[in-house]
Amino acid sequence: MKKIGLLVLLSLLVCCKTNEKEESKVELAFKINAQLGEGAFWNYKSEELYWVDIEGKKLHIFSPKTEENKTIEMPSRIGTVVPANKENSAVVALEDGIYIVNTNTNELTLLSDVESDVTENRFNDGKCDPNGNLWVGSMHLPQTHPKANLYKIDGSGNANKMLGNITISNGIVWTSDKKTMYYIDTPTGQIKAFDFDNKKNTITNERVAVTIDPKDGFPDGMTIDENDMLWVGMWNGNAVANYNPNTGKLIKKIKVPAHNVTSCAFGGKNLDVLYITTASLDMTDEEHKKFPLAGSVFKVQLKEKGVKGSFFNSPNFKTAQLN
Question: How many Cβ atoms sit within 10 Å of the Cβ of residue 283?
């Protein structure tokens, strides 16, 4: 009886452990055939998901309440978007620079023309630090050499180069204590950690926090939860991967019905719904048949909760308005 009791107990423990690792069910949030969905950001004030279609040259604002998706056409490829602290305003990264967009009138105003003369690069992902500065990186269009950079841009349009030798600048987040910044240069297959000086808005002490197993895909856009755990969209990986940056270990993966998963953001009233963007590019005919919803926005209810993303701090500035 004792042996049987022990076996039952072990069985229950294994069962409980298995249940803990069971994946939450991913659902379709908004059906759309985006070419390269990216840049997920939850506007906690308006309770809307801001996201972009880079190759489609579109800024999207999705309302889960109404299930409506507002689209603003951009004049060139758009790498990322972050709402600004001014109402009906957001900062966007276009191919030739950083702009402020009025989300009511769709009017664009140039903030910084950094890298406008570098034709082999375009801007890609970016987010704001705890003080509202935009950290945005460029990527090498041929994706063959580390010729891109990571910049910090303040509300007056002053641009400072923070990192060089980048190939595809991607996910970037900050911990809740404002002391650590995590950053991804996709082809490296790593998530780097930096000490962040919240007073000077600078980074030091570069180190590797996570090394991605190639079989899991390539790390793309990234978000962070209230426990400072990382959630990463996996290009060519069919999933969002959840990592512990303190140990470098994979906690779990959430399978997504898309081959290329690009970014994610915690949203919803309680910040416990993970919204996920995907791409319909770089897929074989077989993959298109297997993942017909690729390019759509997905969501999954989680027990984990995210944090409020930092808005862009844009004081009054004078720039030439685009015609």
Answer: 18
Q: Distance of CA 164 to CAs 41, 294, 305, 308, Å? A: 25, 32, 33, 29
Tokens of 45: 């004030």
Which H helix or E strand runs over 14?
helix 2-20
For 304, which DSSP code? S
Pairing between β-strand 89-94 and β-strand 97-102 as defined by DSSP bridges: antiparallel
User: How many residues would you count in the chain?
Assistant: 323
Element spanning 22, H or E: none
Task: Quickly list DSSP for 79-143.
Answer: EEEEEBSSTTEEEEEETTEEEEEETTT--EEEEE-TTTT-TTEEEEEEEE-TTS-EEEEEEETTS
Sheet containing strand 169-174, edge to edge, reads 169-174, 180-185, 190-197, 202-211
State the pTM of this model: 0.91
CA distances from 199 to 3, 151, 170, 175, 204 (A): 61, 17, 24, 15, 13
pLDDT digits (tens, 9 = 90+) for 221-251: 999 999 999 999 999 999 999 999 999 999 9
Which letter, b or e, does each residue of 115-135 get, where b requires 16 or more Cβ atoms within 10 Å of its Cβ? Answer: beeeeebbbbbbbbbeebbbb
Cβ 233 vs Cβ 262: under 8 Å: yes
138, 169 contact by CB (below 8 A): yes
Residues 6 or more apart whose Cβ sits within 8 Å of residue 27? 298, 299, 300
The Cα–Cα gap between 73 and 56 comes to 9
Residue with tokens 């298109």: 288
Q: How many CB atoms lie within 10 A of CB 108?
A: 17
Q: pLDDT tens across 189-232, in order? A: 999 999 999 999 999 999 999 999 999 999 999 999 999 999 99
